[in-house]
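Writing this down once: the sequence line spells out the residues, with the fold written below as integer tokens. This is how one looks:
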Amino acid sequence: MPLPPSRPRRLTNLIRDAYGGDGQPVVLSSRSDFLKISPMYRFNQWHAIYAPPAGEFWARLEFTRRLARERDAKRFAALARGNRFDPIDVFVLRSTTNGRLVYKVFTVDFPYGHRTVRIPFDEDQFAHAYWQTVEVGPWFIAAPR
């Protein structure tokens, strides 16, 4: 089922179906459009200027970098679900032509505006023993089993 990137409501429904838990899922994604129209929670803001100090944008960003470096799929799943911030219920990452999955955010680079930070993940980190995944267009969606 192809999903054009311009259809955030359909993406929201796919995420809810994949999540299947109670309440609203915590989502790690740099795609902000569907998060603006739904009550889902962001693991981190898509831009540092929108993050409140209590949200710990920089600490969450550093944790995301650490998570992306984890090569053991079991450990990766455990860290994603059990960290000091929030359990990550769903990943929505952009697939690249070289097979990587990218999380992209913007940080403050005063006085020059902002800087784009790209954190690459590997599809191998989302082992089927721990995650159910679906690819829709350029988007890779993963939710815990």
